[in-house]
Amino acid sequence: MTQKTSIKQWIALAAMGLGVFMGLLDVTVVNVALPTMVRDFNTTFTDLQWVLNAYTLVYAVTLMIMSKLGDMYGRKKIFLGSLILFVIASAVNGMASSLLILDIGRGVQAIGGAGMMSLSMALVASNFSGKDRGLALGILGSVIGVSTASGPLIGGYLVEHFSWPAIFYVNVPFGIIATILTILYVKETPSYGKNQKVDLLGMLLSAIGLFAIIYGLIVKEGHPHWDWTDARVSSWLIGGVVVMIAFIIAEAKAKDPMVNLKMFKKPHFIGVVIVAFALGAGFYAYNAFLTALMQNYIGYSATQTGVRQLVMSVWSLILGPVVGILSARYSKKWMISISMFIGTLGFWLMARAISPTVSFVDLWPGMVLMGITNGMVNPLLNTAGMEGIPANEMGMASGLLNVFRQLGTTIGVVVLGLLQDNQYETYLNGHLSSIHMPAPALTGLKKALIDAGPFSGHGIAFSDRLSHAPFAQDFQRIVIHAYDNGMTTVAISSAIIALVGGIAAAVLLQRNPKSVEIPVKQPDENN
Q: Whole-model pTM?
């Protein structure tokens, strides 16, 4: 039975949205703070990579575990505990006096972020009913879209005005507010696992398998010239796949499995996770390359870049609630599919815009289309992913959706980066020989450019020392064209990923899959 939605339920949505926003923002916000951290910790970018990687790894590994614990023991309890853990870890990170403390704090913070993210959709679904559920999930989708796109703007502002600890300290007051609102207004879900045993083997295997795969991708990203067959890369990837196969076998035999594999027998759910993966691999991964283009090559500051990227992120705020309402009337299947095709066109426009004189004026049409896709698909995925899922498994469905989105982002950054590196090096090898300068110097410069990679090549080419050399203009022109070749390839590859996601949605998603209505549990005195 559909119940009238009260103001308390919308306040509960605000609490959950605030938690999700903080958790996802911290995936990307640290990027703009790295240069300041290098100076304050007197270290290198290589050492600081673990400030990013620790969060990415632990976040992805714990998503499914936190989802299952929420389904079993009450999603509000696990969400609230995750929120408190996130706030405490954020405070510790802001006070960190060494990289080791910061790395550990980031890992702990990621556990909290994973718990908030993995249970938010299921909590919203169980706190709302009828048409308002679609609207609420649409608003949550807006929050997800905005948080992933606003990292450069928020991070840039905080670092420029308050230094890097501010990106962690800002979570504390907002986290306290979210905690209080969660305690007062979020309704608890039943403890579905009251008579079940915790699937420790499944949790252990999933954690080890995902860790190995993502760590292998991180190693490959950091060493693009290592072959995939290099044991330092392949051993992690192959080992991770083997462990995940063991996980699937164990889950098929378990009495109370961590993941109900029957979910993957439904073409509709498979279509949802494919779109989630494509969204991560195409759109979210591309954002890292777009930010580098705008900062390293066009020359915008972190704040200027963030402001210009509002033409993408603002669409999540505008479209999320609208999409939530429309999804109750129109086919989510075709809305998702058409939106992904719009993103495909956006990437194609981005590829055509890349040139040595590219500016924001050239980029904004493609960025707008990418933003529309993100603003449409994220809310629709939330709703579509919950359809046909039993009430006791909605937390896990949400967790799987986020795992595939995060895995897509990680794989996308690595694969797109390798494609960019390949095109960048190919152009350099084919054109640097035309510069008239001593062969040893040319070889040294080529090695420096390739070792630095496309992101940092601009800094070498336009350094004060080289800018006064007689061959400077020719050298800089070649570096710019090499970078442009790589960025064009990245945009075209992202377009292909978006196209595949759109086709998968059109083929696999159902127009009106049978939904499992979730009764809204009334709070008792303890909630």
A: 0.82
